[in-house]
Amino acid sequence: MMGEQNRALAAGVALLERAIEYAVGSLRAVTPEALCRGTPCSGWSLQRLLDHVDDSLRSLNEAAASRSVELCGAAAPRPAAANPALLLRDDATEVLGLWTALLADEPVSIGGWQVSSPMVAAVGAIEIAVHGWDVARACGELHPIPPAMAGELLDLAQVFVTPADRPDRFAARMVVRRQAPAQDHLLAFLGRDPDWRAHL
Protein backbone atom coordinates (compact mmCIF):
# COMPACT_ATOMS: atom_id res chain seq x y z
CA MET A 1 0.00 0.00 0.00
CA MET A 2 2.79 2.41 0.94
CA GLY A 3 4.49 1.64 -2.37
CA GLU A 4 1.30 2.54 -4.27
CA GLN A 5 0.95 5.79 -2.32
CA ASN A 6 4.52 6.79 -3.03
CA ARG A 7 4.12 5.96 -6.72
CA ALA A 8 1.05 8.20 -6.80
CA LEU A 9 3.04 10.97 -5.12
CA ALA A 10 5.87 10.58 -7.63
CA ALA A 11 3.41 10.77 -10.53
CA GLY A 12 1.74 13.87 -9.08
CA VAL A 13 5.05 15.60 -8.47
CA ALA A 14 6.24 14.75 -12.00
CA LEU A 15 3.09 16.30 -13.46
CA LEU A 16 3.50 19.39 -11.27
CA GLU A 17 7.11 19.69 -12.41
CA ARG A 18 6.08 19.63 -16.07
CA ALA A 19 3.33 22.19 -15.42
CA ILE A 20 5.74 24.55 -13.66
CA GLU A 21 8.33 24.24 -16.43
CA TYR A 22 5.64 25.07 -18.99
CA ALA A 23 4.38 28.08 -17.01
CA VAL A 24 7.89 29.44 -16.48
CA GLY A 25 8.26 29.40 -20.27
CA SER A 26 5.19 31.62 -20.51
CA LEU A 27 6.57 34.08 -17.97
CA ARG A 28 9.44 34.94 -20.32
CA ALA A 29 6.98 36.93 -22.44
CA VAL A 30 5.89 39.22 -19.57
CA THR A 31 7.00 42.84 -19.77
CA PRO A 32 6.08 45.79 -17.51
CA GLU A 33 4.06 47.28 -20.38
CA ALA A 34 1.91 44.12 -20.58
CA LEU A 35 0.74 44.15 -16.96
CA CYS A 36 -2.39 46.20 -17.67
CA ARG A 37 -3.56 43.98 -20.55
CA GLY A 38 -6.63 41.80 -20.38
CA THR A 39 -6.39 38.03 -20.04
CA PRO A 40 -8.51 34.98 -20.91
CA CYS A 41 -9.71 35.19 -17.28
CA SER A 42 -12.65 37.53 -17.80
CA GLY A 43 -12.22 40.87 -16.03
CA TRP A 44 -8.66 40.14 -14.91
CA SER A 45 -5.61 42.15 -15.92
CA LEU A 46 -2.29 40.39 -16.38
CA GLN A 47 -1.09 41.93 -13.11
CA ARG A 48 -4.04 40.47 -11.22
CA LEU A 49 -3.48 37.10 -12.87
CA LEU A 50 0.20 37.10 -11.86
CA ASP A 51 -0.80 37.98 -8.28
CA HIS A 52 -3.17 35.02 -8.30
CA VAL A 53 -0.48 32.67 -9.62
CA ASP A 54 1.80 33.97 -6.87
CA ASP A 55 -0.84 33.04 -4.28
CA SER A 56 -1.15 29.57 -5.82
CA LEU A 57 2.60 29.00 -5.70
CA ARG A 58 2.74 30.13 -2.09
CA SER A 59 -0.02 27.70 -1.20
CA LEU A 60 1.85 24.86 -2.90
CA ASN A 61 4.94 25.94 -1.00
CA GLU A 62 3.04 25.78 2.31
CA ALA A 63 1.56 22.41 1.44
CA ALA A 64 4.97 20.86 0.84
CA ALA A 65 6.81 22.63 3.67
CA SER A 66 4.29 22.39 6.52
CA ARG A 67 1.53 20.03 5.25
CA SER A 68 -0.95 22.79 5.97
CA VAL A 69 -2.46 25.60 3.88
CA GLU A 70 -4.18 28.61 5.41
CA LEU A 71 -6.96 29.59 3.01
CA CYS A 72 -7.24 33.14 4.35
CA GLY A 73 -3.62 33.74 5.26
CA ALA A 74 -2.20 37.19 4.55
CA ALA A 75 0.63 37.09 2.01
CA ALA A 76 3.77 39.09 2.64
CA PRO A 77 3.85 42.20 0.44
CA ARG A 78 6.01 42.17 -2.67
CA PRO A 79 8.55 44.92 -3.46
CA ALA A 80 6.70 47.52 -5.52
CA ALA A 81 9.45 47.89 -8.10
CA ALA A 82 10.08 44.17 -8.55
CA ASN A 83 9.41 42.42 -11.85
CA PRO A 84 6.50 40.10 -10.99
CA ALA A 85 7.51 37.54 -13.64
CA LEU A 86 11.01 37.21 -12.15
CA LEU A 87 9.57 36.81 -8.66
CA LEU A 88 7.21 34.12 -9.88
CA ARG A 89 10.08 32.22 -11.51
CA ASP A 90 11.91 32.26 -8.17
CA ASP A 91 8.78 31.07 -6.36
CA ALA A 92 8.21 28.32 -8.91
CA THR A 93 11.78 27.08 -8.50
CA GLU A 94 11.34 26.96 -4.72
CA VAL A 95 8.04 25.08 -5.00
CA LEU A 96 9.56 22.54 -7.35
CA GLY A 97 12.49 21.97 -5.02
CA LEU A 98 10.21 21.36 -2.04
CA TRP A 99 7.88 18.98 -3.87
CA THR A 100 10.62 16.93 -5.49
CA ALA A 101 12.21 16.48 -2.04
CA LEU A 102 9.07 14.87 -0.57
CA LEU A 103 9.66 11.23 0.31
CA ALA A 104 6.25 10.14 1.53
CA ASP A 105 2.59 10.74 0.77
CA GLU A 106 1.42 12.54 3.90
CA PRO A 107 -1.94 14.33 4.00
CA VAL A 108 -2.15 18.10 3.68
CA SER A 109 -4.58 20.09 5.83
CA ILE A 110 -6.43 22.65 3.69
CA GLY A 111 -8.99 24.69 5.56
CA GLY A 112 -9.47 21.84 8.03
CA TRP A 113 -9.85 19.16 5.33
CA GLN A 114 -7.28 16.40 4.93
CA VAL A 115 -6.19 16.03 1.29
CA SER A 116 -3.62 13.60 -0.10
CA SER A 117 -0.32 14.99 -1.37
CA PRO A 118 -0.80 13.57 -4.89
CA MET A 119 -4.19 15.30 -5.12
CA VAL A 120 -2.68 18.63 -4.06
CA ALA A 121 0.10 18.24 -6.62
CA ALA A 122 -2.37 17.34 -9.38
CA VAL A 123 -4.69 20.27 -8.65
CA GLY A 124 -1.64 22.54 -8.48
CA ALA A 125 -0.52 21.28 -11.88
CA ILE A 126 -3.90 22.13 -13.43
CA GLU A 127 -3.86 25.60 -11.89
CA ILE A 128 -0.30 26.46 -12.85
CA ALA A 129 -0.38 25.06 -16.39
CA VAL A 130 -3.67 26.68 -17.40
CA HIS A 131 -2.65 30.03 -15.95
CA GLY A 132 0.63 29.66 -17.84
CA TRP A 133 -1.45 29.51 -21.01
CA ASP A 134 -3.43 32.57 -19.83
CA VAL A 135 -0.20 34.52 -19.32
CA ALA A 136 1.17 33.64 -22.74
CA ARG A 137 -2.06 34.62 -24.50
CA ALA A 138 -2.27 37.91 -22.59
CA CYS A 139 1.23 38.68 -23.90
CA GLY A 140 0.20 37.81 -27.46
CA GLU A 141 2.26 34.62 -27.50
CA LEU A 142 1.29 31.19 -28.84
CA HIS A 143 2.67 28.76 -26.26
CA PRO A 144 0.57 25.58 -26.49
CA ILE A 145 0.25 23.22 -23.55
CA PRO A 146 2.07 20.01 -24.59
CA PRO A 147 -0.54 17.52 -25.86
CA ALA A 148 0.32 14.66 -23.49
CA MET A 149 0.23 16.95 -20.45
CA ALA A 150 -3.00 18.60 -21.62
CA GLY A 151 -4.62 15.17 -21.87
CA GLU A 152 -3.55 14.23 -18.35
CA LEU A 153 -4.73 17.56 -16.96
CA LEU A 154 -8.09 17.23 -18.73
CA ASP A 155 -8.68 13.80 -17.18
CA LEU A 156 -7.88 15.20 -13.73
CA ALA A 157 -9.91 18.38 -14.20
CA GLN A 158 -12.99 16.33 -15.06
CA VAL A 159 -12.61 14.62 -11.67
CA PHE A 160 -11.77 17.63 -9.51
CA VAL A 161 -13.91 20.41 -11.03
CA THR A 162 -17.58 19.98 -10.16
CA PRO A 163 -20.72 22.03 -10.90
CA ALA A 164 -20.33 23.57 -7.43
CA ASP A 165 -17.13 25.26 -8.66
CA ARG A 166 -19.08 27.26 -11.25
CA PRO A 167 -19.41 30.17 -11.65
CA ASP A 168 -17.26 31.25 -8.68
CA ARG A 169 -14.01 29.40 -9.43
CA PHE A 170 -14.57 28.63 -13.11
CA ALA A 171 -16.80 30.07 -15.82
CA ALA A 172 -19.33 27.92 -17.63
CA ARG A 173 -17.91 25.15 -19.78
CA MET A 174 -17.47 26.14 -23.41
CA VAL A 175 -18.09 23.95 -26.45
CA VAL A 176 -15.35 22.89 -28.84
CA ARG A 177 -15.39 20.44 -31.73
CA ARG A 178 -14.85 16.81 -30.76
CA GLN A 179 -11.71 16.60 -32.92
CA ALA A 180 -10.08 19.60 -31.20
CA PRO A 181 -6.74 18.99 -29.45
CA ALA A 182 -6.65 18.07 -25.76
CA GLN A 183 -5.52 21.60 -24.87
CA ASP A 184 -8.70 23.09 -26.34
CA HIS A 185 -10.90 20.60 -24.48
CA LEU A 186 -9.05 21.38 -21.24
CA LEU A 187 -9.38 25.15 -21.67
CA ALA A 188 -13.04 24.91 -22.70
CA PHE A 189 -13.85 22.66 -19.75
CA LEU A 190 -12.35 25.29 -17.45
CA GLY A 191 -14.41 28.07 -19.02
CA ARG A 192 -11.88 29.54 -21.44
CA ASP A 193 -12.11 30.29 -25.14
CA PRO A 194 -9.22 28.35 -26.73
CA ASP A 195 -9.20 30.92 -29.56
CA TRP A 196 -8.90 33.92 -27.23
CA ARG A 197 -6.61 36.60 -28.63
CA ALA A 198 -4.91 39.36 -26.73
CA HIS A 199 -6.12 42.86 -27.54
CA LEU A 200 -2.75 44.50 -28.07
Automatic annotation (TrEMBL):
Domain Mycothiol-dependent maleylpyruvate isomerase metal-binding, first and last residues per copy: 19-136
SUPFAM superfamilies linked: DinB/YfiT-like putative metalloenzymes
Domain of life: Bacteria
MF terms in GO: metal ion binding
Pfam families per the UniProt record, alphabetical: MDMPI_N (PF11716)
InterPro entries listed in its UniProt record: CHP03086, DinB/YfiT-like, Maleyloyr_isom, MDMPI_metal-binding
NCBIfam families (UniProt xref): maleylpyruvate isomerase family mycothiol-dependent enzyme (TIGR03083), TIGR03086 family metal-binding protein (TIGR03086)
Protein name (record): TIGR03086 family protein
Gene source species: Nonomuraea diastatica
